[in-house]
Design brief:
The protein is an alpha/beta fold. The chain contains eleven helices and 13 strands.
């Protein structure tokens, strides 16, 4: 069921194209999207200080712990954002009445402060799904010292008293994905398309190439960035450019921009190693998936809150946290010896024998 939203927030959200939802189904969300408010100007940001979150009690009448989640992109992008959304839904289902989760999606950079402020006024925990939310999370967290905040994809740096940063360590699994791509390629050429050219995305691209060369030192590798995780046209152009140079296996860190890579691969009969979630068997276009546990980290934050053990920390996830946090799933096409080599590569990364860049 859709939550009741204040008039000020309704007007601002409608003007900004945002959707704030509490425990609703996809059909509920669609009905909200189809009825935008008529407001044409944004209201002033909410600035009041929230009351302290109500502690959980071991009684059936205890008020649920309120969790707010900011999803910068679309929750149905088949990528990072969808993984985060899936995680909040799993946590909501597992904790039942003890936890109430609401989220806002498709939030532009300029609107993040106000969206986070709104969530903070009504939540015990606020989660930003993506490193692009971190600056705003840290800024807003200072205004709400009694509210807990977490950033999925957060960077190691100064530690705020009420902010946790979770590092997905994409570069680790990207190395393994590159090794698999080299094994699966029939042309001896592979490619990577990233969105924003920022350290975490660039480091993943570099390690994908390093992993491919670890298996085949003479492999051709093409790396490009669109400047936007959601730009379908640019990601298609980048993929087609790599295909014209021989690439037949593609890897990515994209959100809705993945649609462009899919279009190019379908047109030219090449293949993709997907990211974030194991969907083997659902689409022959995909020959493997790297699991980057975005949703797992959303669940982790909510689980810690529910257990009363949440703490402000920088926590690296990655291969060392198990297959839910990070793994590579090959959908077929490799021999037992090749699969064994991929397992050995993962072990060597964990032991430090193979060193990868930080996320």
């Amino acid at each position: 069921m859709a939550m009741r939203i204040s008039k000020r927030w309704s007007a601002w959200a409608a003007a900004s194209g945002l959707l704030l939802v509490s425990g609703c189904s996809k059909s509920d969300a669609a009905s909200l999207d189809s009825k935008p408010a008529a407001a044409t100007t944004a209201a002033a940001p909410v600035t009041e200080t929230p009351a302290a979150p109500t502690p959980a009690a071991d009684t059936p009448s205890a008020a649920p712990l309120a969790v707010g989640v900011l999803i910068p992109g679309s929750k149905s992008d088949k990528g990072w954002m969808e993984s985060g959304y899936d995680g909040l839904k799993r946590a909501e289902s597992r904790h039942g009445a003890k936890v109430k989760v609401e989220y806002v999606e498709n939030v532009k950079f300029a609107d993040m402060d106000q969206a986070l402020t709104m969530l903070a006024t009504r939540s015990a925990l606020v989660i930003g799904v993506g490193g692009q939310t971190e600056a705003s999370v840290r800024k807003v967290a200072k205004r709400f010292p009694k509210v807990k905040f977490a950033v999925v994809g957060g960077n190691k740096g100064s530690q705020d008293e009420n902010v946790a940063q979770y590092d997905v360590r994409q570069a680790e699994v990207a190395f393994v994905a590159g090794a698999a791509a080299a094994m699966l390629s029939k042309t001896g050429a592979v490619s990577y398309v990233g969105g924003l050219e920022i350290p975490a995305i660039v480091n993943a691209g570099k390690e994908f190439g390093n992993g491919a060369r670890y298996v085949n030192p003479s492999i051709k590798y093409f790396e490009s960035y669109t400047g936007d995780f959601d730009d379908v046209v640019k990601s298609k152009e980048a993929t087609l450019a790599a295909i014209t140079q021989g690439a037949d296996v593609h890897y990515h860190i994209l959100n809705l921009g993945l649609r462009g890579m899919e279009q190019a691969a379908r047109e030219k009969n090449t293949h993709i190693i997907g990211s974030y979630t194991d969907r083997c068997g659902t689409d022959p276009l995909y020959i493997a998936y790297s699991v980057t546990g975005v949703g797992y980290q959303v669940e982790y934050a909510i689980d810690q809150l529910a257990a009363g053990s949440w703490k402000a920390e920088f926590k690296p996830f990655g291969l060392g946290m198990g297959s839910q946090a990070s793994d590579l799933k090959v959908c077929g096409g490799l021999s037992p010896d090749q699969l064994g080599k991929l397992e050995a590569i993962e072990k060597d990364i964990l032991s430090g024998k193979i060193k990868t860049l930080d996320s």
